[in-house]
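Hi L.,

You mentioned the student needs an example of a multi-chain input paired with its predicted structure. This one should do, with 365 residues in total across all chains.
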Amino acid sequence: MTSDDLRAPDPFAAMPDLDARLSRLRQRLAVEAEREGLLDVAYRSVDSPVGRLLLAATPQGLVRVAYEVEDHDAVLASLSERISPRVLRANGRLDPVAVQLDAYFAGARSRFTLSLDLRLATGFRLSVLEHLRDIPYGGTASYATVAALAGSPRAVRAVGTACATNPLPVVLPCHRVIHSDGRIGRYLGGQQAKQSLLRLEGAL
Amino acid sequence: MEREPFDAVVQRCGPMVLRVCWAVAGPDLAEDAWSETFLAALRAYPKLPAGSNVEAWLVTIARNKAIDQLRARSRRPAPTERLPEPARWEERDAQLDLWDALKRLTPRQREAVALHYLAGLPYAEVARLVGGNPAAARRAGADAIASLRSMLTLAKEDESR
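Structure written out for the whole complex:
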């Protein structure tokens, strides 16, 4: 733009404020994208007693739950990279997830009945995640027990890694995996979050 | 090469695209043009070559969708509003608002002004989109901005009279 262009008055100062229409337009875009089969990754966030959680779902199901400490923007960038860049904020697909999480945090739900998309985990890590749901609400299991459940009794450290990289924390209860001596151990959402969840479930 | 989540593109470029749609297609058609733009962009986004200028790409789509909206309306049997011929200077409207003023520009002037002033495209890029050479695009943009200033200033003076 040349200095000539900047001469007052700016005719576009007379343009109405359009930004107020954008949130409605974005909702409409998400609805139309879903209808056209273009919404590869829908996301929204919810508030919870363990902080704000990011929820993301593909058409197959819930693919990611992320704690704030994981940096939600970084998580979305990684989903864009690993799944598809067709990522939009969209409530519809995630409403059932938000409802079930609310009930869980209110102590009114002890298991989730959601379609899950486990594509972000593979191999032994996936096998660990699949066995996490064998640990009942209100209970805990040691890393060694989970290693045995997943078919590799000696892969105790690998169970720790699988938990630390669980793409669906809370829903797949890696918070129920603790040390054999009773120490609750590390957690991807922070030790305090792990403690809160175990206390909520009556396991502590 | 990392591909930014499309949602971040909508957040960053949504306001600019809406202003361009508004200036080219007018208040009634701007929102449909915006929706069509981002739906088409979402469809093509995964195949956009790495390192592309996302803003310029979106503006290209937006300009086409805004023109499509105008054409579709002019084809409809009972248009509620028709783009008038560019007005003669004597016919300036006392109640002129911005869209009334934009409608009085030629389509080429309106596009030039929207693409350069609202989308921030250099005139070389504007010329590539609307045709002609950069000098002609610059002239169209400069004429348009002068006409707008003049029309809007006169309208204001008339109001305050």
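You could point out the following to them. Chain A has two domains: 22-105, 123-200. Chain A touches chain B through 34 residues (CB under 8 Å).

Best wishes,
N.
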